[in-house]
Amino acid sequence: MSNQFTKPFRYKRIPITNHERKGKNKKVENWVGTLTRVWSYLSAHRGYLSLVVLMVIISSVLSLLGPFLIGVAIDDYLVAFDQNGLIRLLFMLAIIYVLYSLSMWLQSFWMIGIAQQTVFSLRKELFEQIQLLPIPYFDKRQHGELMSKMTNDIENVSNTLNSSVIQILSSVLTFFGILIVMLYLSPLMTLITLTVVPLMVLGMKWITRRTSVFFKEQQRELGEVNGFIEETISGQRVVKAFSQEEQVITQFMDKSEKLKRASFWAQAYSGFIPKLMNVLNNLSFAVIAGIGGWLALGEQSPVTIGMIVIFAEYSRQFTRPLNDLANQFNTLLSAVAGAERVFEVLDEKKEEDQEGSINLETVKGNVEFKNVSFSYEKESKTISNANFSVKAGEMIALVGPTGAGKTTIINMLSRFYSPKSGEITIDGINILTIKRENLRKHMGFVLQDSFLFEASIMENIRYGSFDASDDEVREAAKQANAFSFISKLPNGFETILDQEGSGISQGQRQLLSIARVILANPSILILDEATSSIDTITEIKIQEALQRLMIGRTSFVIAHRLNTIQQANQILVLNEGEIVENGSHTELLRKGGLYAEMNHQGQKDD
């Protein structure tokens, strides 16, 4: 066995922020609240839950009858050699065990249905919540971690609901049922049986106090590993381009090592429970058999052979619920850790509109920024006092060095981020008073990285307007200069693409994105590096499609290639979050400022 398993393991954590630490500590202390929230989902199925409880009660009673009747058979029929009575009792036992099996199957069948419906509701609510969360939430978290919450954590809850709810209820009923029956038969023998209970309680307390910590760490480390895997797979081109395969493998091994350690100790400590219970079960059996047998030798002793058999069997059944409760407690802790992570997302503040927000039926496209400032972090401003106005139908270009704030301007216009101060208006209306969904319906986005869904080309273009007919989709493809290459594909518009758009070039993906926007028919266009990394011939097709698309629409264009925005009505030059120059291409060249310098540098590069 390796040294990390044989030596004491010191708990190691990946550094987290104070905000995250406070959130995690709060949730660790609030596991009862988490169970209460899970119950709120379960309680929607009270009818079936009542049937499950009824079946659990019936199965618990029947499980108690079996050993009792066996003891009766020994004392009343075997000792007396009453063959007929023994046959009747055996027949009764057969019926009891058949009914017991049926009740067990019914409670399991109904509980599985309840659990799956509950998890379905929880998964649906989580997915809906993710769709309503603001963009900043995703910018600060690994996508793989969110995937882990959608899959691993909810699966943990599902597995626990499928088995643990019934097991816990059954264990509690069986425990108290056995205790009552044993007290009725013989208080003395009951006291003998209970001698091992304090040892069980102390052992379980010692173990569960340690496993709870490791199960929570296990879930957190699993999220870290999933996040890293998703990130690495998404960035495979970069990994390979920089020959960093060994580096990412090393990083993965480090994260996997932490997960392995947390999982090992969680499972190792929880594995002590059944071993401890088996030892105590055997000890209890030995005590009952020894002391019970010695008592049965007395002539006037109330203890009989049948009673010893009953108590021996009940002792096993008596400790089994405690064993089951301990095992289920560990499972429950794992599920609670997963549920906490799910509820953490559900408790995040949604991207909500302010009260009284309106819908715009039509948008002309007049846009104005008034003293707008924004910062991602409190320490520094990304945009400082931006002031400019755009008339409907105009083309405005945003240029400047990397990190100057160009994309931030667009993010605020589309309300992915809200300004810290100032006002942004469309047709004279503050965009904060417009419903986000309605605002974005009047906007069309053609971004540098064209995202395609795993669907047909027809469905990818139709994403711009789900109500569009096939003919309208084809017409949009023609206007985007995409119809020609689509027609040459083996399955034409029914060609299935994956997210990476395998089988078509980057430029062709961009043409599909333009067709999608044409179908959406927005009033305001946002073009973010739409022609970067494109070959010259495809760029010409894209530029032609964009020119058709921009006719009659207000257009915001972010571009590094200054030759693509020379016809813009207005060019904003940003540097370090400030608009340092504003004017047409000719005016800015005449000023001889930053734009003229960038233009001169661009001509040298060409």
Automatic annotation (TrEMBL):
Domain of life, per lineage: Bacteria
The UniProt record lists the keyword Transferase: no
Subcellular location: Cell membrane
PROSITE patterns reported for this sequence: ABC_TM1F, ABC_TRANSPORTER_1, ABC_TRANSPORTER_2
Gene Ontology cellular-component annotations: plasma membrane
Keyword DNA repair: no
InterPro entries, per the entry: AAA+_ATPase, ABC1_TM_dom, ABC1_TM_sf, ABC_transporter-like_ATP-bd, ABC_transporter-like_CS, P-loop_NTPase, Type_1_exporter
Transmembrane segment boundaries: 47-74, 86-106, 165-185, 191-208, 279-297
Domain ABC transmembrane type-1 residues, every copy: 51-334
Domain ABC transporter as annotated: residue spans: 367-601
Xref: Pfam families: ABC_membrane, ABC_tran
Gene3D superfamilies given in the database record: ABC transporter type 1, transmembrane domain, P-loop containing nucleotide triphosphate hydrolases
GO molecular function: ABC-type oligopeptide transporter activity; ATP binding; ATP hydrolysis activity
Membrane topology: Multi-pass membrane protein
Keywords: ATP-binding, Cell membrane, Membrane, Nucleotide-binding, Transmembrane, Transmembrane helix, Transport
Protein name: ABC transporter ATP-binding protein
Natural source organism: Halalkalibacter suaedae
